Amino acid sequence: MGINTDLLHAGVVKEEKGATLPPIYQNTAFEQQCAADLEGIFENKRPGYCYTRVGNPTITAFENRITKVEKGIASIACSSGMAAITNAILNIVRSGDEIVSSASLYGGSYDLFRDLASFGITTKYVKNNDWEAIEQAFTDKTRLVFAETIGNPSLDVTDIEKLSEIAHKHRVPLIMDNTTATTVLIRTIDYGADIVVNSSSKYINGSSNSISGILTDSGKFQWDFEKYPGLKEFKKFGPLCYTAKLRNGLFRNMGTCIAPMVAYQNIIGLETMGLRMERECSNAFKLAQWIAKNHPEAHVNYPGLPSSPWHEIAKKELSGGYGAILTLRLGTKENAFRFIDELKLAYRLSNIGDTKTLVIHPSSTISLHSSKEERENAGVYDDLIRVSVGIEDIEDIIADFDNAFSISTSK
Ligand SMILES: *Cc1c(COP(=O)(O)O)cnc(C)c1O
Asked: What's the pTM value of the predicted model, to 2 decimals?
């Protein structure tokens, strides 16, 4: 099936009363017929539900749909994208271990990795797609490689096939944050990713009505139980051992579950994600082309333009669009602020993946807590603005930008 069909139908279990959307199980706990049944569920010997922090049928419906569209074998939905990243990483690292990560990261991930350092888990940052530097960053303590498919906001595109080859050569898994690209543009597991994380607050939900995240296990990584001793106990789960450890351990113990209502809202979002991405990517491409032609001084950065250093990788990997985010550089921070303030249609806020066009100045907001060096490595400059393009009529988006350019540059 094609991706749009899958987004609507994959993993759907027909509901007994014929409802076309999964019922919202808005409850905390589930009663069983007898004490032994409850024991069986706690022992993982019986299927079933006991407590929503651990599992809930509406949440399962969301997880199953994502598992199918991401081509994995299991997913765990979490309270936020950051919770999904935290769970994905902490499941396989211990104090003293190291992470090799692309330096082109979402600001929140930088902040998380800094927090992890105080628990003895350190991160070596490398320039994305710099294979020599990546090779050199590995030590015998490296336990995972982390990167974003399309870096937010530098918009570099990771060559996932190559990166996964290097990770696998060193016998560590590749965790890909696929939030900005989405499964509509790329199934990262096909390119060798072992664990995929998505902030479902963004394109999956699509309308910015709730915060959540989800991680998906490819089931393909060959875990070395000497290297990952915490997984040994879950060896009997075979390819599901990573997910089994997380679900029976840190995920339930940290209490980072998604709310059933949010899982339901995300399922509704998934149904239109293909259509939304089609329009948002097409609008972003047209806006990028218009800016490149009419305002070359704004240095528009968009993976769909041949001027992007990542255009060839994007062409090879992404299908159906080059993402819906672009950035501009306007010379100074003052120019950037003035431009943002002159936009009338675009919302000034910290988010991506909404149906509406959004704009932000990253260095004073999402990357505020990063050092100057971290910001530059992440492609964040004082004069940079990031635009997350929505589904409005493209003529209106262009008119809004045209107006902002003419007012802000005439002052
Ligand atoms: C927003 C975002 C996150 C964090 O997701 P939340 O749902 O806000 O916690 C992680 N990675 C990327 C690339 C993001 O854009």
From this structure: 0.97
